[in-house]
Amino acid sequence: GIIGNSIAYYLAKNHHGSHNLSVTLIDPVGVCPAASAKAGGFLAEEWRDGTPLEELHRLGFRLHQELSEELKHIDYRRLTSRAAAVTNNHLQRKHNSQKVPLTPMEWVDGDVVLASAQTGTEKNTAQVHPKKLCEKMWDYTSSKKNFTLKIGRVVEAILSSKEKQDGRLLSSVILEDGSIIDADAIVIAMGPWTEEINSWFPPTDRKVQVGLTYLPTIYGVKSHSMLVKTEKVLSEAVFFESESPDFDIEVYPRPDGDSYVTGSSHITFNMTERPGEEAVEEIRKKELMDAMQQTSSHVLGGKDPHTVQACYWPETHDGIPVISPLPSVKNVMVATGHNVWGILQGPATGLAVAEWLIEGKVNCIDIEPFAIGPSTSRHRRMMQSDMYETSIVYDEL
Q1: Which of 23, 60, 72, 255 could form a disulfide with 348 if both were Cys (CB 3.0 to 4.6 A apart)?
Q2: Which residues contact 357 (CB under 8 A, 6 or more apart)?
Q3: Are 188 and 332 in contact (CB under 8 A)?
Q4: What angle do CA 30, 211, 325 make, to 5 degrees?
Q5: pLDDT at residue 386, as a whole number
Q6: Residue pLDDT, tens place only, 376-396
Q7: Which residues are bridge partners to 241 per DSSP?
């Protein structure tokens, strides 16, 4: 996905010439088979200002601009965005049509809008095609010597007989087919399937098992989306809000003439669907089709989508991703839980992890807000919050 791709990309771009690197990406399907191929790719520079995510978010926005210049043909562009409060009540729509019209929107029915506000300009909002970005990043990365993709699934981690004073060391991983890959370091960037690592390590190794308890629960949020081809290229993304959750859709027009439409999402605590095999639920497709008809009857409504898809994004209980060494296993880094902003934050995460792998420290951002372990600010916040008890209840369920 975007996280693993970004890590490999910045290792290849910034460190390949000065270090004798051998990098293996392991994925059960291939390059970006899951959410990174099906995401909307909306980028907003300032939408996490004032939170622990601000620095990561802003760096990610800047790096996407750089990537668009380096890689080309990833459908990157600046665009505007608006938020619109809408109604699906026919009497309310009739009343609205008789009022003084609001600021017209590019492709939204005027009589459905109760209020709207600009949320982004071409200065601070942009978009990219996530699948094209991941593929172009891997094209560059795989052109470098000793950067390879291995199709497979890790089922076990082998710990070294050597032990550092501050923790164990991982020496290799075993794949489902029995093959073994030796490693000086490993990065776990498994999105909503991160929980699988709990079965990798020996249950009798108390130090490792205690370290794993500091990793917050990573759960999946299933989201549906569809792609609709319009007669002309649109340039305004819109976030809808209404009295009915079914009409709270988001629409991101793309420069290739597609409009990406997504709607309600649903939490999943037990990830039974595998990457690339996420089933489309017909009821969710109907909800999106109905919402398009209600909000944009002349442009999007009535059009058959050429693509309907589903994916999971990874979520944490506090909405903050994990970018951290795994406590008690010092050569393992975890990078996951980036929620709906994974595409935006992916390159910044990749740059940070690449620095950690080569230099043993991160210079581009402060990753302490994303660290896990007993002495971190995250752990202190969790211990002071009722979210800690909630996460335990979810685990038991």
Answers
A1: 60
A2: 7, 11, 185, 187, 333
A3: yes
A4: 55
A5: 55
A6: 888 888 777 755 444 433 232
A7: 85
Model's pTM, two decimal places? 0.90
State both tokens at 312. Answer: 């999971």
Residue type, 135: E
Radius of gyration in angstroms for the set of CA atoms belonging to the chain, rounded to a whole number: 22
Question: Helix axis angle, 130-142 relative to 54-71, nearest 10°?
Answer: 70
As to burial, measured by CB atoms within 10 angstroms (0-12 exposed, 13-18 middle, 19+ buried), residue 276 is: middle
